[in-house]
Write a structure and sequence with these properties.
Elements: H1 2-13, H2 21-29, H3 33-41, H4 48-58, H5 62-69, H6 71-94
């Protein structure tokens, strides 16, 4: 699960301690703690700029940070978009007038 990966990354970065890690990351990124909290819970995804900052803070490749924090949201958005496109195509094909 992605949340486990996020929590482990944060805890490892904070010397093996979970308490205060979220606040420390928010301070390091010069953001409010609510933003970081929303990323950790999966309610929101960090911007590309914040992914790059976290890559530097955690000393991890950008792609790894993106996979941990954005990967599942992108997959969900991709599935939702494809479903919406399929539903739209199906709706419009059933209303087509024969020539």
């Amino acid at each position: 699960m992605q949340n486990d990966k996020k929590e482990k990354l944060l805890k490892d970065w904070n010397g093996g301690i979970s308490r205060g890690a979220q606040r420390k990351l928010a301070q390091k990124l010069k953001l409010n703690e609510a933003s970081v909290s929303s990323w950790l819970s999966g309610r929101a995804a960090p911007s590309e700029g914040n992914i790059l900052k976290m890559s530097r803070v955690f000393n991890k490749p950008r792609e790894e940070i993106e996979e941990i924090f954005v990967g599942e949201r992108r997959l969900g958005a991709h599935i939702t978009a494809n479903t919406a496109q399929a539903q739209h195509a199906q709706k419009h094909s059933s209303h087509a007038q024969p020539r």
